[in-house]
UniProtKB/TrEMBL annotation:
GO molecular function, one term: helicase activity
Gene3D superfamilies, per database record: 1.10.3210.30, P-loop containing nucleotide triphosphate hydrolases (3.40.50.300)
Pfam family of the protein (one): Cas3-like_C_2
Record flagged with keyword Cell inner membrane: no
Protein species of origin: Anoxybacillus flavithermus
UniProt-recorded name of the protein: CRISPR-associated helicase Cas3
PROSITE patterns attached to this UniProt entry: HD_CAS3, HELICASE_ATP_BIND_1
Keywords: Antiviral defense, ATP-binding, Helicase, Hydrolase, Metal-binding, Nuclease, Nucleotide-binding
Gene Ontology process terms (BP): defense response to virus
Hydrolase as UniProt keyword: yes
Domain HD Cas3-type: 2-187
Domain Helicase ATP-binding: 237-426
Family membership noted in the UniProt record: In the central section; belongs to the CRISPR-associated helicase Cas3 family. In the N-terminal section; belongs to the CRISPR-associated nuclease Cas3-HD family.
Amino acid sequence: MKSHPYVLYQKHVQCLHEYNKHFHQIDKNIDTLIDFHDIGKLNKLFQTRILKIEKGLPVKKNQADNHAVLSMFIYLLNEIYVKKRNDYKEIFKEANIIRGHHGYLKTIKEFVNYFSEINKDILIEGLEAIYTSDSELGIAFRNFLNEFKQKRSLIDFKKLFMNVDWSIDDTIDMQLKLSRLVDCDRLAAMRKSKFNKRDVETLSLFNFTQEYINRLPKLNDDNDLTKIRNMIDLEKWRKRPKAGIYSLTLPTGVGKTLTALKIMEWWNEGNKSIMVVPFLAVTDQTEKIIRDIYKNYPNNEGAIGGRLISSHHSMSNGKYDIEDDSDDWSMIERWSGSIVITTTVQFFETLMSRNASKLRKLHNTYGATIVIDEPQGISYKYWQQLRGLLPIWAKKLQWRVILLSATPPSLPKETVKMIDNEYELYTYLRRTRLITEKSVSSIDEWIHKAWELTKNNNSILWIVNKKKIAYEIYEKVRNALDREVICITAQETSLKRMVLVDKIKKMIKENKKVLVISTQVLEAGVDLDFDVGVRELAPMPILIQFAGRINRKAVKERSDVYVLPFKNSKYSIYHEEEYNHTLTIINKYNNIINESDYLKASNEYFLMCEQKPPVIDNTYINAYKNFTKELDKFSLIENDYTVNAIVLEGHDDEIKQMFEKVTGEKYINLDELINTYCNKDVILFNERRKFRQILNLFSINTHKDQVIEFEHPRLKGLYYIKNN
């Protein structure tokens, strides 16, 4: 009997057990799930299909050889009629996992109704095709099948699960068990049922970050940032604390990311470290820093293609429909790296999912240190719900969660502060002040006012809320000013953004005149330091985050940062109450907020949000608690008209040089790279992983109507556009 082409069924099951025993033990083991998840493949129809695949013959699926459904029914027979179990909630979880391990988990309501949807005749056809033995289960199976054909109804099963009592703990437990089963199953399939110890190893993190910090240029001793850095004492956190939620509040510019990475190393102890960044556009910058830190890791494991670092976001994985001939047993989707870089969207949408592929990585987070960077950037509508779930996840999964921010949002009540003197750190800061100007009526008026406020400086940053407005401003001024004008948004590929950021850094360093027009993409995770800035009105924490791009290294005595609102609401992207709270605080400070008051102003803003929320919505926390279909609607990106796509266009010398700098390899034309990949007879795992990582460098987020899906099976689920 075969489980996959050329793989014996028994060998496959044994390999799953071997993988399973090397993972953390989470609540109960999944041995029973492993034993039954593919038992429906012991089916004459399925075995015939496997044989045809091996011979290269065309195959067509038959409803009667749906092995997941057959496996679920054999499991139910064993647990209810052989073992006489009556803990129907646990049986529901496990049956649901077996049925959904190639797709998704059904809600309780869907699962109950599922027994009314199944065609009994087709089910019996499939069950009759099962090879049976004279074991207790085999005899019971044949007896049950005869009884089922004559007397029993599918409604008998339906009645058992109609009144299941459910809780959040049950949701997490079911997600975890599915995660473990799917990961073991796909590893065994990818490795042709030959256990590979490298798949379950987590590489240790050494003292690389401190060594990297020691190599960085030092600021003068009398610099304000130097004084603040000397005040930060985290030595008491060297020892790994108990699982829970921790907050690390540090002013912009003092090295928040590097500090968090250093703590990750302290707390590693053979567990994963996960860096959750706010935007897709920031992952490349963060990955670049982390790869630079670990570039000398033994055996080149810190390089692209190595096992140390995984970057996983919405460009990282394609979709595959057929288990037996797909090659998507991707290590990226399971977060195989010791250090994982992902986005806020990917992280939370995984946790709120019932999709098997998305949940595959969940059990690999057990015991992890998770840094959530800039959590204040999450919409209040979602944060008010997620902060209630974070402590529950941390307890169940033994996470150490660090909420990393200069202006943290309202935190879970269980949060432990890692810095005792947060406000004291800010009292020494005088790099910037936020000055709010009178609102303007049009884009032309905004440009005129912004230029008047900033024209006497060399490096200028203008930020607006919408990409469309940024490009419109760029087109109006790019040939009209006394300097080079650069526009940078999330519409640039990762490589293009790297080129532009490096160019901007060089121009700033050489004191050249430059105006950068951008969106929120430049407000987090990008180490740029401008002389002056103007920003469209946004919620208070975002304005403060923007100020962190100005006079960042405290080279000037003080820089003014201007807030320039539009009168017309058509330019806004935030909730009206978020603007109202921000304007209330601005008025309280008479339109001028000094940097020493930034943390105070931010906390006042979040307190106002608690007292008068921009929106009250418990939809998703209730959906998670009760495991209902509303979970499917959860998305931190509140539109469904965008998709990630690879930009197929010619590349100039700067792009080619950046490619070689990032990958350490000679530039290769993207069309040539894709054709070579698709035409290879066999693709090894490392080749597949490296290929996907390279594609990420050429990706953007764009409208669905602008993209084309690749036709080749190896690229299924990936999109491209001819030019950007």
